[in-house]
Amino acid sequence: MGLLAGCASVGASGPSTAQIVKVRQQQIENSGIKLVDVTDSVARQTADFNRPALFSQELGDGFAEPTVIGPGDVIDISIIEAPPAVLFSSGLSNAQLPIGGTVRPTTVSTGLELPQQMVDLNGRITVPFAGSIQASGRTPQQIGQEIVSRLRGKAHDPQAIVRRVTNASSTATVLGEVGQSGRIPLTAKGERILDVLATAGGAKQPISKSVVQITRGDRSLTLPLTTVISDGRQNIVLQPNDVVTVYYQPYSFTVLGATGTNAEVPLEGTTVTLSQALGRVGGLQDNRADIRGVFVFRFEDPKALDPSLVAGARVTADGKIPVIYRVDLKNPATLLVAQTFPIKNKDVLYVANTPLSDLGKFVGIVSSMTYSLVNLGHTVAQ
User: Fold this and answer.
1) 140 SS3 class
2) Do 191 and 214 sit in the same domain of this protein?
3) What are the tens digits of pLDDT across the range 160-172?
4) Last residue of a domain, one of 194, 216, 248
5) Buried b / exposed e across 359-371, counting CB within 10 Å, b at 16+?
6) Sheet of strand 321-327: strand arrangement
7) Is residue 222 within a helix (H) or strand (E), and if so which, with residue range?
8) Model confidence over 224-277: pLDDT tens digits?
């Protein structure tokens, strides 16, 4: 009887399959922990919900905007008047200019280069003889046309050249784990995500452990940096006032139980399925693992679950539901399901011991004790 009582003390690496399944029959009413058998439909629903929203789908590829002046921009204006100059004359009639060491009369255009000026908060600039002009929301060419129209009748065939010297209104902000945070000017070329990251000095952390968040208005989307690099469609054109934030996110999951290795395994910013996760840790131990007792412990978003499971579930402070996904690898079809079931950050993958494994441990203990008793009897007899 004493030996049989020793069964209760046989070591184990965690709860058995039967103990985990009893979550459904706990005496604590409404424990809130849900046990979900992983089927093809469950795997597809979970995979569809946990698939990250792509930049190209949610924000579009984007487009390069023309150069539009805004408040805070610094612009340079040059005004040229055709001869004979009337308004911007240099004071010489038919300007006497030295050419080739001799002086001869020539007729040339006369121009005026205005000091650089900043577009004010009202979006306006001031031009001599033209007055206050609306600049904000216009291209340099449109501003030049407005200046010319106001100078007609005052200057002889005037022409105006307007260019933006400092771009303060059409920028994207780069923050986080980059070489140098700041505002990056956007041009008519159409800068993309990787362009502004390169301008900011690139990611300071390993690419495989970095994610990129794009904030546009009241929307924020996040993708692994490796995805943006490998999938050119996600390297979208940025729009004015976009905020690009690079985070250091060492995603990982934990593996326990009857597997080749018990460890915390990095996800490396990529999507990992259950079958891949088991392969990374050396698979199941043949002499210990219960192939019907593979479990994934997760705090799941209610939207990823069947509505019938959400009712009465315990909800954490951040709105998640504790779920235990059970996988029966004895069913050959489940091996295909495991190739679509995603492993997420902070998941715990646990493989229970087979009951025969615990029995083998007990038999080993009994054999060891019996052998010791026999030796003790021989010693006493001598």
Assistant:
1) helix
2) yes
3) 999 999 999 899 9
4) 248
5) eebbeebeeeeee
6) 34-37, 321-327, 289-300, 348-353, 252-257, 263-266
7) strand 219-224
8) 999 999 999 999 999 999 999 999 988 889 999 989 889 999 886 567 899 999
